[in-house]
Amino acid sequence: MSRTKSFSTTIQNERGMISAEFIFAIVIAAGLCIVFFALNFTLSMAEVAQYIAFSASRAHAAGHIDQEKQEQMAKDKYLSLINNRELKPLFNKPDGGWFVLSPQIDVRGGGESGRTFDSDYRYTEERVPQVGVRFDFTAKLLSLKVAFLGPTNEDDAGFTAKVTAFLIREPTQKECYELQIKRRYEAVLNLDQRFKEMARDTAGYVPSEDNGC
């Protein structure tokens, strides 16, 4: 009878339970704090990546000699930003880091190249084409293993998203001349035969515009 009573008393003893619950709650709270910190920091770095995309797209949108020069300006701007002394440790550390950006940027300006993002995003015909830049943003910081909660990502590759910046590209000097100035000049000459004779007899006459396109 005494043995049964002693065993029952041991089972009903709840001393120390509050300590176990406290430790469990602290671990869960710390894990959630780590997850929220990683999420907030990732969203902040995503905004920085969006700024990089906008800067590269703005460099691409500015007028230049031809379309190849415009695309090269975007690539040069992108590389200069990701290799910046302050930004490079955040995104492209040599030994890997929390965040990674694509080593190359995808530039599509439509026009003569015919390359756009129309097939990748919702697009309405007869509207301005989807042109600009795009690259991958990988957040390895979100690949966590939280106690009692488990991993946030089953592989270690990190979460990847597309960062885009679409801006209407200004026409190049080549496009201005070939698609507008030259065609308009030819249309004027075709109005009257005398215009062709005047243009032929006028040495050094060159069709031009006072305001580009």
Describe the structure.
Helix 2 (17-61) packs antiparallel against helix 3. The N and C termini lie far apart (105 Å). The strands form 2 sheets. Strands 1, 2, 3 and 6 form a 4-stranded antiparallel sheet that branches. A two-stranded antiparallel sheet has the order 4-5. Strand 4 and strand 5 (150-151) form a beta hairpin. The longest helix has 45 residues, at 17-61. The mean pLDDT is 81. It contains 6 helices and 6 strands; from the N terminus they run ααααββββββαα. The chain is rod-shaped. With 213 residues, the chain is an alpha+beta fold.
The quaternary structure here is single chain
Mean pLDDT over all positions: 81
Terminal-residue CA separation: 105 Å
* H/E series: HHHHEEEEEEHH
Low-confidence stretches: none
- Fraction of residues in β-strands: 5-15%
Task: Please give the radius of gyration in angstroms.
Answer: 32 Å
- Computed structural class: alpha+beta
Helix content: 40-55%
* Overall geometric form: rod-shaped
Number of strands: 6
Main β-sheet, in a few words? 4 strands, antiparallel
Helix count from the secondary structure assignment: 6
